[in-house]
């Protein structure tokens, strides 16, 4: 089954905005922030991306077999699609 991964890099800044936290808050977040959106450790991050890269290919197990076959043989492993994007 095909799977994919995405990596985004950029510059991040801490944003302390309790009103926005309350707006987007959901019950599962309580597991990490028992104090709710008013918890001092609950913050927002604003990320300004500058680069992204994605991989689309087979699942981990199948990709592992392809890499092993490439090591044992003389062909390069085809692990799927990969692209980089400057933002």
Report how far apart the termini are: 30 Å
Level-2 CATH architecture: Roll
Q: Give me the CATH fold name.
A: Pnp Oxidase, Chain A
CATH superfamily: Electron Transport, Fmn-binding Protein, Chain A
Question: What is the chains' assembly state?
Answer: single chain
What Rg, in angstroms, do the CA atoms define?
A: 20 Å
Note down, in words, how this protein is organized.
With 87 residues, the protein is an alpha+beta fold. It has a single domain, classed as Electron Transport, Fmn-binding Protein, Chain A (Pnp Oxidase, Chain A, Roll). 23% of the residues lie in helices and 38% in strands. The chain has a 3-stranded antiparallel beta sheet, with no helix packed on it. It is elongated and about 60 Å long.
Provide a compact summary of the structure.
It contains 2 helices and 3 strands; from the N terminus they run βαβαβ. By secondary structure, it is an alpha+beta fold.
Topology (elements, then pairings):
Elements: E1 3-15, H1 18-24, E2 44-57, H2 60-72, E3 81-86
Antiparallel strand pairs: 1-2, 2-3
């Amino acid at each position: 089954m095909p799977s994919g991964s995405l990596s985004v890099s950029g510059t991040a800044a801490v944003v302390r905005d309790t009103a926005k936290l309350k707006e987007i808050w959901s019950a599962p977040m309580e597991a990490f922030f028992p104090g709710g959106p008013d918890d001092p450790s609950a913050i927002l991050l604003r990320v300004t991306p500058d680069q992204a890269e994605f991989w689309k290919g087979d699942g981990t197990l199948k990709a592992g077999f392809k890499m092993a076959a490439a090591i044992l043989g003389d062909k390069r492993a085809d692990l799927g699609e990969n692209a980089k994007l400057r933002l």
